[in-house]
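Hey, can you fold this one?
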Amino acid sequence: MTNAFTRTPLWGTLFQDPQTAAEFSADRFCARMVQFEAAWTRALRESGTVAKDTADMAFVQIDGFKPDLDALARASDVDGLPVPALVRQIKSNMPEDARAAIHSGATSQDVIDTATILTARAVLSMFGDRCIELLRLLDDLNDRYSDNPISGRTRMQLALPIVVGDRIEDWRTPLAAHLDQLRELIKEISVVQVGGAVGRRDTPRGSADTIASDVAKTLGLRVSPVWHTDRSGMLDIGHWLTKVSGTLGKMGQDIALMAQQGIDEVQLDGAGGSSAMPHKQNPVRAEVLVAIARVVGGQQGILAQSMVHEQERSGAAWAVEWMTLPAMFEATGAALNNADHLLRQIRHIGSKSPT
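Sure. Predicted structure:
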């Protein structure tokens, strides 16, 4: 997620979002990979690819499965990813003939991509709730201060007088639009990855399409064409995160400028202090919003590199997603949290003195 330095206690939670980090934790991501394996075993049974009693033995193993995360870590150093070792762990202590009910016809990319989609869907839904709360806070500020005058500025120079409601509308309108787009985004990305070894969706032979549909139904997803090398959906997720963090960064930039001494168009409770200049009240949360917006925007450019998947699967382009997208998620989650904190800090907006 975010880098090790900003995850230390030195920076508090300014750049962290524990809830988002938990969704990408080894425990939770492993649970989603195992969820895929259970859905796959169910589909093998329902399609008649494996016998019912064989599948039932597999379900007993899956239901009681506790992954050895340290062993997965050691295996990933060799295999480049945890799925082969995870499947071996699930199959251990099972009769040889029952092992065919686990993972047969699936591949590591099916498991990881589907688990990533399940994770993204959960986090995006959580972010939707946070956006709703931010809109409520903005509406409350608008109700209290909308008619107060402030100076309109273009290119950071005095332009014409406006009112606080005009500035808040500039913050609120794009955020509301992003929230509306989120519903469609979640629908669009909620697709299972079932492509098999080389993305042809041709195993198990004769029942691959049926199995894909069954797995998708079990996981609450839908079936789409195989997207082994088409990473457009991941880029769409990153684009939404970039827009949200950018919108919050614009709000943070405005508030930081409004808080300048001599302008004094916003008063904040609990602003940050200086070690050398005790007269200062630094708009810390606003500044963090600007920083996060710039970093997430840069990470989206890196994420775009994952579109270049050579042949039928790329280990390198795939790894770019693992290094980038979770970090974008956590940074955006931190931005949403900082924005919530910042809006609650505002005790007055506008050029008029508080009453």
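The chain has one domain: 9-349. Let me know if you want another pass with a different chain boundary.
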